[in-house]
Amino acid sequence: MNFYNFYTGRSFDAHEWLGVHPQGDGFIFRTFAPGAERISLIGDCTGGAEIPMEKAYDGNFFECFLPDAKEGDCYEYRIYHNGQYTDHCDPYGFGMELRPAHRSIVRTHSYDFHDGSWMKTRNDRRNGPLNIYEMHLGSWRRKGDGLNDFYTYEELADLLIPYIRQSGYDYIEMLPICEHPADESWGYQNTGFFSPTSRYGTGIQLKKFIDTCHQNGIGVILDFVPVHFAMDDYGLHKYDGSFLYEYPSNDVGVSEWGSCNFMHSRGEVRSFLQSAVCYWLGEYHFDGIRFDAISRILYWQGDPARGVNGMAVNFVREMNRGVKERFPGCMLIAEDSTDFDKVTEPTDQGGLGYDYKWDMGWMHDTLSVFQMSPHERMEQYNKLTFSMMYFYNDRFLLPFSHDEVVHGKATILQKMNGDYDRKFPQARALYLYMMTHPGKKLNFMGNEIGHFREWDEKREQDWELLDFPIHDAFYHYIMELNRLYHEHPGLYEWDYEPAGFHWLDCEKDGSCTYAFLRISHSEKLLVVLNLDDHPVVDYEINVIGANHLELLLHSDWQCWGGQTIQKSDTKIHRSGNRFLLDLPPLSGMLFQVQL
């Protein structure tokens, strides 16, 4: 580690020196604590005794070597300050105990990956399909109802990979797995930024999970929290007795979630966070990082009215630049609900350097339309077309994420207008619209089976729903949509090119129909939606240059739980460039245009 770079926020490898590392016949322990009076190492490797740590380099670092320390030993730092002490886990520790225990664990990283072919060819998928299955490892499936009845990383691989391949997703996005004390935080309030949570096993087991995913053609994205950290005394909070990682003022130092905000203007904090990102990408072979709550970095407390946090914005830009230099094939994804400029522009062009930005506006507008009655939809017709007014400002990713199925918001299926039976045709139309709209895709676990209970991190998904024909049909509908998405370049190749999309019907005229084209260099696809609860007979659509339309998917086919007999009831009459279609209520169709 270059100390000048560490202090100035330019280090991306601080974890290679700080923390615990093998040295000769033992291990060397190092920590950064400039405000500490003295520090002792305590734990299994000391027999419970305090082993004094010596000051190193410029006196702001402490270290000690233990010849008897071994893999799996638990340890912590007893940090003395202002005449008292606090026991802390290692900020750069590579493993931690299962909560409520919280000591760090001596871990090494010896594992031989077998994913060389994947790593050589992975890329940001800008011109390819990207269909992400977002999941919380501890509640996708459970061994039982007990507090710690979790599957290990390796066991999850055996269960999850066949399901992901069958369902038609190509990437998994894990909710944060950095160690965290409270299950209810879902991993968003961390104490161990370099420690994979012990709920599901060890770091070696996590590496095997990712390696196995790669060997099966599945990418893995990590949700990472660069904004705030848990308030627990044993964590980063007042680590050396001073505000080392956080702001000294509660006005900006405490987040809306009751956690501590990182002070991104400090070089040591920058080096800490960007080293953690590189650690997960390099050591574990994650394919991308989704950065949580970026709006809270761009603006003070996430509020544009408070102004831009210039130092934090600079941190994001320089972090992304450095990460991309070191891992050019990775994906960097921003969860940002603001209209901050140039989020996905390259850093050398004044942008923040992300590959993708979550389209929160599209998500909110789309779900609100499907919550409305058909009459209200007609009044709010352009709410569904508005996304294309700004879509090319950034490279957007369309999310139906975990945040939309918790805290009284209802699940995606529940949000659909009307009673139980009426929700399914609308959900099918919703997902046809999502999968054919420009932009990469993300869907949270359970959405694909029509989950009817809000997500609870303490319980596994309600897989018994698949015993009900309507839910099973919905799942197979999502499978077919995912298959078509991957097989047709028109649905992804020109996502971020204006030539890849063209409205055919987007005028507010008292109806609730929409039609648009998706285009690539090799094909043209037509999408038609009727979001009214009445059928539309002889709907006229003009597709210039088309000879005929080949129906690829109808959301109202009986095999999906609809009313239309597959293909035989679909009338496509051509007169010149005009086609006449019969549109069942609350339905959508996808056609391949034959020129």
Helical content band = 10-25%
Please give the order of strands in the largest beta sheet: 10-11-14-17-18-19-20-21
Number of strands: 29
Q: Kindly report the average pLDDT value.
A: 95
Task: Provide a descriptive summary of the structure in words.
With 595 residues, the protein is of the alpha/beta class. The protein contains 15 helices and 29 strands. A hairpin with a 2-residue loop joins strand 7 (74-81) and strand 8. The longest helix is centred in the last third of the chain and has 19 residues, at 469-487. The termini are far apart.
Write the layout of secondary structure elements.
Layout: H1 3-8, E1 19-23, E2 26-32, E3 38-43, E4 51-52, E5 54-56, E6 61-66, E7 74-81, E8 84-88, E9 104-105, H2 116-121, E10 131-135, H3 137-140, H4 153-167, E11 171-174, E12 178-179, E13 192-196, H5 203-215, E14 219-224, E15 228-229, H6 250-253, E16 260-261, H7 267-283, E17 288-291, H8 295-298, H9 310-326, E18 331-334, E19 356-358, H10 360-371, H11 374-379, H12 387-390, E20 396-400, H13 412-415, H14 420-436, E21 440-444, H15 469-487, E22 501-505, E23 513-519, E24 524-530, E25 536-542, E26 548-554, E27 572-575, E28 578-583, E29 587-594
Parallel strand pairs: 10-11, 10-21, 11-14, 14-17, 17-18, 18-19, 19-20, 20-21
Antiparallel strand pairs: 1-2, 2-6, 3-4, 3-7, 5-6, 7-8, 7-9, 12-13, 15-16, 22-23, 23-24, 24-29, 25-28, 26-29, 27-28
